[in-house]
Amino acid sequence: MLPKYHIIIGLIASIAIYLIFNLTIFQVSIIFLSSFLIDADHYLLYIFRKKDFSLINSIKYFKERRRRWLSMRPEKRKYHKRAIFIFHGIEFWFLLSVLASYINLIWFVLLGIFIHMILDYIDLIYVNDSLYTKLSQLYVYQTNKRKKNFL
Fold first, then answer.
1. Is the predicted pLDDT of residue 91 greater than 70, yes or no?
2. Residue 74 maps to a domain
3. Residue 150 domain-assigned?
4. pTM of this prediction?
5. Residue 151 lies in a domain
6. What is the mean pLDDT of the chain?
7. How many domains does the chain have?
8. Quick check: is 56 in a domain?
């Protein structure tokens, strides 16, 4: 899903949470920011792969990558490696959950990530893609073995 949709829906969800629950503006801001800043792992991956710090180039790269990925039939996609997005897996969420038991504000980060991931799962279902790619990054790493690079 494109970042603009994460921002718009994250904002709507954050406002709804603010209106329904007794949270501070600061807490709701954390929810909102984490609902789309989780995608910083895309930018980090771009920097690692391309050795380029341009955010604009990163956005273009991932838009083109998504366009090419979706132009492939779903049965062909399974032969290509998936990108590993370190913030999009249960491993990272588990670490945050442990930290949240010591730092209460991290629960709001997890709520923002939950909003983000719901949107990602809806998008994966919509484009007929595998949900596992956004569930466990260790599993993605394991299943990438013996597959072809993509793009």
1. yes
2. yes
3. no
4. 0.91
5. no
6. 94
7. 1
8. yes
